[in-house]
Amino acid sequence: MGGVGKTTLVKEVGKKVKKDKLFDEVAIAVVSQAPDLIKIQDEIADALGLEFHEEKEIGRAGRLRERLKTEKRVLVILDDVWERLDLGAIGIPHGVDHRGCKILLTTRREHTCNVMGSQATKILLNILNEQESWALFRSNAGATVDSPAVNVVATEIAKKCGGLPLALVAVGRALSDKDIDGWQEAAKQLKECKPMNIQDVDADFFSCLKLSFDYLQGEEIKSIFLLCCLFPEDRNIELEYLTRLAMGQGLLEDVETVEEGRRRVRTLIKGLKASCLLMDGDKSKGSLKMHDLVRVFAISITSTEKYAFMVKAGVGLKNWPKKGTFEHYALISLMANNISSLPVGLECPKLHTLLLGGNRGLKIFPDAFFVGMKTLKVLDLTAISKKLYRYSLHITPLPASLQLLTDLRMLHLHHRKLGDISILGKLKKLEILSFFASHISELPKEMGELKNLKLLDLTYCRSLKKIPPNLISGLSALEELYMRGSFQQWDVGGTTIERSSASLSELNSLLNLTTLHVEIINAKCIPNSFLFPNQLRFQIYIGSKLSFATFTRKLKYDYPTSKALELKGIDSPIPIGVKMLFERTEDLSLISLLEGSRNILPNLGSRGFNGLTSLSVRNCVEFECIIDTTQGVHPVAFPNIETIHLTHLCGMKVLSSGTLPMGSFRKLRVLTVEQCGGLSTLFPADLLQLLQNLEIVQITCCQEMQDVFQIEGILVGEEHVLPLSSLRELKLDTLPQLEHLWKGFGAHLSLHNLEVIEIERCNRLRNLFQPSIAQSLFKLEYLKIVDCMELQQIIAEDGLEQEVSNVEDKKSLNLPKLKVLEVEDCKKLKSLFSVSSAQSFLQLKQLKVSGSNELKAIISCECGEISAAVDKFVLPQLSNLELKALPVLESFCKGNFPFEWPSLEEDQSLSLFRN
Questions:
Q1: Which of 593, 706, 687 lies closest to 637 in space, CA to CA?
Q2: Count of C-beta atoms within a 10 Å radius of residue 553
């Protein structure tokens, strides 16, 4: 039944099988009662990183099918299936078409399992039994339920939840801070609440939800909860859109700015999630979802006289609903239907919100449509568009009656091809105006009359060519301005009288501006001084227009939460106005800089870039290093930077040149390096000594790299933290000259937090670890080595006598957390591990070895290694063993040492080892 936890369970399954690498890819799509194949295809494709160029379902299905077939092992999860689903029409290969594609679905109806395929394995998910129910209820209600006074009534309430996790959690959390009077009052409400008769739902379920709703503190949080039912079933709800609805309706008390409203809504959403009335969305941190049963409950609340909502979103309507009268409605949501025409003469004197977004074919708005809706505060007329660059030839004229909506606070006109929009200047109370991805050629001077406008969104309005001078500076209340992928005809300079177009200098007049998102092709348009307040969040793109491919991918809100600056393709000295932004920037991207850009410090600035937390440098051919301190004394460099990405820097020889002050790079956690052919050593000892928080290192296609970490000469003492002690993930790919991962003696090196190692196509590498380093790999879970032609050993034995004094010490080379070990095409590999090491593999679940021409035994057993007290060798968790293309393999364990693997799945190819 609904609410028993099907969706939660399969999401956890998806996370676990991906983490344990049982599947290469996992894709989840929500089906719902009215399946939308386009939406299902999009959700699966999004998980696979696939972009569709086709618009029709059949073409997209073919593209999706071919993409899924490229994966050896892929799990597709279809959630909330109600009827037989044509997998072929979606593009999901099944049966003999692709045996590596496994399908997991959830449904409330056993019949659906039967009609989906004879090979289906059915797993019935029952409600929780009494003991399980009480344990879940108690964990959410708290220890107060153990007191004698509360326990009896709490037990009664828990039983009323009917074994449904959703109800148990919601009610438990609602009552967690109540005294005995509160508990008794709750029990009384549950008894008296009239249950709703809904198919597939326990009769008491809505009583439990009603109790949880009633216990929400304040009208604001209840109003935000009810707004979430306005969207179609199973829809991801963008927090940004929810904020705009709440601001437009005036639901948030004592909130003056849009950002304050955003924070308030985030706080309220957090409370609703804690009450189990909302859950996280599937696509981004800024989205959320409402369980379909909770949505049905919320709609039942809003349909009462107190709220007077009409909610028919995403139900396939082709015409305006047939009702005798609309006079009592305060809110109407008809979004995501197929309505193509609107009635005339509607009388809606109480209507404050009308949501018509996403109706296919709705292109004509009768001139008199809004005459009877003069109290509207929120209006959404968004068109549906799968491709941002496609517009219908039909221009949507704004109806004349729109100017009568003098109380309108929020207006969305997304994906529309609009003509004359000058009547918008009549909407003097307008605070939020969005033309996201619409076709408009100019902003009329009348828009300068919108003195209360706080947010103007012109994102992806690619056809916008004209903005009159002083229009932007005249929007004195403007707090947030979004113009990514939009207007580019900024005036380069001159006085106000001389200018024929808007100038970036007008932004200095917006004293309330807190958010700016803008794209500037011509860097010369930038004034020498941006007088922005310190609290301004920005994303500023300078030097190159948004590419067509990137433009077509961007179908969602993209609002700055930090201070980001991107410079791309600038072939002249960087303007002073841009350099002044560097010290305010938190996220800096440098792409294809052409003239004189040899480094960042001191070439681009000399103050250390103290605010920078993220740096990306790509395709800068003259780049030699990040920092050059050889020409003088420099301040602490990049003290707060956390991530660095370096790509296609063919001239880079070192990360830093000269001596770095202490404190530089002290917070660096992630470093990725790709296609930097001049680098021979990534981390010399003096630089490595500074990187006390490094967690992730990824290096790809660096043709001259000979060693990664130089550990000779590292200082050790009370004042020095062991380098690499925070390292969690190391991935190396296509480093043909690499000879050493760790160059030098590693007695003072600790890798006790390293969890993942992937080494691929490093053909000169002969081993991975010295024994002294391997001794610290306590947390290593995943080890993959592929196509390393010269690799002979994983743990080096050369010089072993110098590092390990006796056999007993050698046994300490253990990997107690190792779960996955894969070795492929390492032709000269002679052994994997010795018995003394392999005896620690208590967690090993997957072992794959292939393409090793000299490997005679998987586990080597040298003389003297076996204790007389040990009579067998056991891999207790091993469930998957694959041995392929090992022409000289003689045994699993050299020396005829007995072994067991009790968890191994049956496979005929393993009979040799069992015998």
A1: 687
A2: 11
652 vs 621: CA distance, rounded Å: 8
Could you tell me which residues are beta bridge partners of residue 707?
681, 740
Q: Is the pLDDT of residue 231 over 70?
A: yes
Helices (H), 748-897: 771-774, 800-803, 807-810, 835-838
pLDDT, tens digit, 9 for 90 and up, residues 553-575: 444 566 767 899 999 988 777 77
Please say whether the beta carbons of 701 and 733 come within 8 A.
yes
- SS3 assignment for 103-127: EEECCCCHHHHHHHCCCCCCCCCCC
Q: Which residues have C-beta within 8 Å of that of residue 826, sequence separation ≥ 6?
A: 785, 786, 787, 788, 789, 791, 851, 852
Q: How far is CA 14 from CA 18, 19, 74, 880, in A?
A: 6, 9, 11, 19
Q: How many CA atoms lie within 13 A of 510 on its CB side?
A: 29
pTM: 0.82
SS3 317: coil
The residues with which 509 forms a beta bridge, in sequence order, are none
As a whole number of angstroms, the distance between CA 169 and CA 211 comes to 12
Q: Residue 131 region, left (φ>0) first, then alpha (ψ -120 to 50), else beta?
A: alpha
Gap between the Cα atoms of 425 and 457, Å rounded: 16
Who contacts 893 (Cβ-Cβ below 8 Å, separation ≥6)?
835, 857, 858, 859, 861, 873, 899
Structure tokens at 605: 């600035």
Q: Which residue has the tokens 């990049």?
A: 638
Positions of E strands within 445-514: 455-457, 480-483
User: Strands 455-457, 237-238: parallel, antiparallel or unpaired by DSSP?
Assistant: unpaired
Q: What is the pLDDT of residues 746-782, one digit of tens each?
A: 656 789 999 999 999 999 999 998 888 888 888 999 9
CATH 3.30.70.60 is held by the domain 6-116: no
**Residue 538: its H or E element:** strand 537-542
Q: Is 375 helix (H, G, I), strand (E, B) or coil?
A: coil
| Cross-strand pairs, 383 | none
Phi, psi of 837 (to 5 degrees): -80, -45
Phi, psi of 720 (to 5 degrees): -120, 125
Contact 772, 747 (CB under 8 A): yes
- Region for residue 415 given its phi and psi (left: phi exceeds 0; alpha: psi -120 to 50; beta: otherwise): left
φ, ψ of residue 785 to 5 degrees: the values are -130, 120
Mean pLDDT for all residues in the chain: 86
Where do we find the tokens 């113009």? Answer: 483
Cα gap 148→273, rounded to integer Å: 30
**Number of helices (H) and strands (E), helices first, in the chain?**
22, 38
The 279-280 sheet, strands edge to edge = 237-238, 287-289, 279-280
Q: Tell me, what's the pLDDT at 808?
A: 41
State the number of CA atoms in the 13 A half-sphere of 121 facing the CB.
3
